[in-house]
Design brief:
With 760 residues, this protein is α/β, with parallel strands linked by helices. Helices cover 33% and strands 21% of the residues. The protein binds zinc ion (2 copies) and fe (iii) ion.
Length: 760
Amino acid sequence: MDKIRAIIKITGTVQGVGFRPFVYRIANQFNCGGFVNNDMSGVIIDIDIENAKLKSFLNALMNKAPILAKIDDIVYQISNSLDRKEFLIKKSDVTDLPSVSISPDIAVCDKCLEEMFNPHNRRYHYFFINCTECGPRYTITKRLPYDRKNTSMDKFEMCFWCEREYYEPINRRYHAQPISCFDCSPKLFLKDAGANVLEEGVCAIEKTASLLKKGKIVALKGLGGFHLLCDATNSKAVKALRERKRRALKPFAVMFKNINWIKSITVITEKEKEFILSKEKPIVLVKKKKLHRLDKTKFKLSASVAPNIDRLGVFLPYTPIHYLLFEYIDFPIVATSANVSDEPIIKDFEDLKVKLRGVFDFVLDHERDIVNACDDSVVQEVNGEKQILRLSRGYAPLSFHLPFKVKKRFLAVGARQKNAIALAFEDKIILSPHIGDLGSVESFEYFKRTINVFKNFYNFEPQTIVCDKHPSYETSEYARNLSKSENLDLIEVQHHLSHVYAAKAEMFFKDHPLKDEKFISFSWDGTGYGDDGTIWGGEVFVGDERKYHFKYFKLLGGEKAIKEPRRVALGMLFSIFKEKVFSLEIPPVEAFSKGELKLLYDSFQKDINTPLTSSVGRLFDAVASVADLVQVSGYEGHTGLLIEKFYSSKIEERYSFEIRGKEIVLDEAFKEMLEDLKKVDRKKRISTKFINTLADIVIFLAKKENLPVILCGGVFQNKTLLNILVKKFKKENISYFFPTLIPINDGGIALGQLWKAIKG
Ligand code: ZN
Ligand code: ZN
Ligand code: FE
């Protein structure tokens, strides 16, 4: 028997995820002596092992690692065996672990659920049950390393039994930092809106259920913040929530007890099922089932949950409290982030009381503080893949290991919408959870707070700061000021080029075979500041050069146009038909009075508040207005969803387009659209032909340039468009890439900025 000593070093997310007990088990299986330990950069395993078995030992480390572990790298050295017999877990003597990544929060695991529903278990119905493989992480962590004393569980002392589990290496709660039980638990309360405690513990959950049954709106403290809950089958309750939250149309996500409930009212694919059940438990956008009035289903969702669209955001319970709640109710619940519109999700009762006064009737609150807020993640299936549209709970913070060291410490501050931040230091890149739209003082504070959280975690001070070129984005102003006051380098990256670089970063992380190619990149979204001062959003890059773009048209009323598709349509129609528009009997014209039309034409001619745009997002608005799908839109992305709803795969025609030099021109397309308005199936025809047109523009230019394609920007959240394109790419043998791991929308901008700064 030929024994050797192997010192194995593992880096990645390997701390606080049950990695050392896992190594302990494997080492015993392989009859190894030695020890496992944590150090500054990860885990060290020092073993004596049979030479012939080393390979399978390493394989076991790679393939059987705990669910939350993410191994970036394994390196090892071999020397003479020390002939040790026993294997030990050494206590970590390192107090400062700046380069170890923090793990995202994870939904309660099956083993914990089994215990929670076992009447003989000491944690039967225990509402904070967790183990090394599940429960809160990022949201309760004040500083690294991830250790109980550095979390919001620090003020709760472990009882005798919990402490035993916590210190026992082979226990599944070994070093589970938030460990607790009924004997040593943070308290759970049901309070009324005036903060009077009505019930405690499990009774509070039961009472919450009975209030929901009565149509009440209850705020519930989850992992990363409060949700507002109500019975999703009770239209009165859902409408009350809409009114109180002042949210007219934007769809609500719905939480279901189990996958069968979801299946009963939606059509889901195997993949979608997989995403819904995955350990991250994201909100998954799926298709509603077309139900007839007489269809017998377990329940009927209120039409006010996601009005007029054929999609629904669904998810499953992910905390023990959610599971217990569903023990007492037999209907799905609306579960929407508790916030004031444009503000971040609320994480403290004190805030909730002030800001959402009058919105909720009761609150299920608890004593485990949320240190860092974190919204629910949102994903969808495209082409069999999981596309992350909002990177947050369960996925973020997201860290990447680079095969090289960056020359400087970078901080990228993102855009204005769907903001997130990104940092790079040494061989690491970290992307924060979704911060949100920065339209308010509160959300900007949250943005700054998040930067501080990450500075703290990683002991990080930036040397270079990267931002959008926009002259007045709060984030860009913040970056410019910081660069001045702290004397840091400043790099500004054009918005749509950032989208392209976000895609390139993802290709690099995935080690995609095309990662070093030159691309033709379609960077299409709603708005972004262009190099010429206009509003870009329909850009086509070849390499880094902006080679094509949609022909500019005027946005009547600037900002105001963004909420009114009819204005966008009119701006487009004026540019094509001039004053002839007045005599057209079409929906966008009929949506205005004669007087309004005159005023708008006046502003069009005199260029009063009519910024130019090439935005494809706005083209969707214009088309939705012409096709009479909507004239005043309820929320961002609304027109896209409506056009998708009316898309019909039976119609294969498209509209004309023309490439004039750098410009993609759709004048003819709009003329043809007006002809289609005369047809009976006009909504379907126009929606479908428009999508087909966009797809063919991509294919045409890709063939013309003869380069592989990148698709990026918020427009490509449009699943219908993406699916058609994928089919066409395959048929035409065109290589392509679009981000799925990092949001394809502005949530990926910070990473794009960072990557552009690193790669030059
Ligand atoms: Zn667990
Ligand atoms: Zn305990
Ligand atoms: Fe964008």
